Amino acid sequence: MSARSLYVTGTDTGVGKTLVSAALLYALRARGLRAVGMKPVASGCERTAGGWRNEDAVALRAASDPCPPYADVNPYPLPAATAPQLAAREADITIAPEPLLAAHARLAATADRVVVEGVGGWLAPFADGFEQSQLVHALQLEVVLVVGLRLGCLSHARLSARAIAADGCRLAGWIGSKIEPAFDRDGAYAQLLRDALPAPCLGVLPHMQPPDAAAAARVLTWPPP
């Protein structure tokens, strides 16, 4: 991909965006690139001696090389485990684009690629009046869609792809994620998605418990066709 940074979104929350984002970091690093992760807004954080920390952001930081400051990986850590709009209101925090752009610039200055993980699905806002597409446009990111392979994913994936295009953003590829171990039609659904989506499949991840981003990186098709 020609873009300096990638934006990872999903068909919904809980579909494996963090695993995919970390796997992309490992895949980029395997090509000899310096790659760092970013989770601009993260709800569901725990208070630590170093401040509020989010499990997903910590995982992205651990998969990064060089290892960036946590504050740049996750400029807005929100305590409540709910939609960012609600979590920010509860914490009396106003989420604005400027700190995110500044943090991304610092990360990009130290790396060849930045992998930015979004929140929930594509149309889940960062905050009142602040859509994910606005950040994608501001940073000129290419989008990777994570599709949770389960009943209903065909509609969710196609709607997501249409929404991404309608917002004027480029869908560079999609990655399937088997999130339900008992779902035995993941292969058939993945083929239907290959036929239906207007972007290449970059890989289909098996169910992983616990998640293993380094192993998942070896499943990805990189660079995309």
From TrEMBL:
Location(s), subcellular: Cytoplasm
Entry-linked InterPro entries: DTB_synth_BioD (IPR004472), P-loop_NTPase (IPR027417)
Keyword Ligase among record annotations: yes
Reaction catalysed by this enzyme: (7R,8S)-7,8-diammoniononanoate + CO2 + ATP = (4R,5S)-dethiobiotin + ADP + phosphate + 3 H(+)
Keyword ATP-binding in record: yes
Sequence intervals crossing the membrane: none
Annotated ATP binding sites: G14, V15, G16, K17, T18, L19, D56, E117, G118, V119, G120, S177, K178
Pfam families: AAA_26 (PF13500)
Active site annotation, chain numbering: K39
Function: Catalyzes a mechanistically unusual reaction, the ATP-dependent insertion of CO2 between the N7 and N8 nitrogen atoms of 7,8-diaminopelargonic acid (DAPA, also called 7,8-diammoniononanoate) to form a ureido ring.
Record family assignment: Belongs to the dethiobiotin synthetase family.
Name the UniProt record assigns to this protein: ATP-dependent dethiobiotin synthetase BioD
Taxonomic source organism: Luteimonas salinilitoris
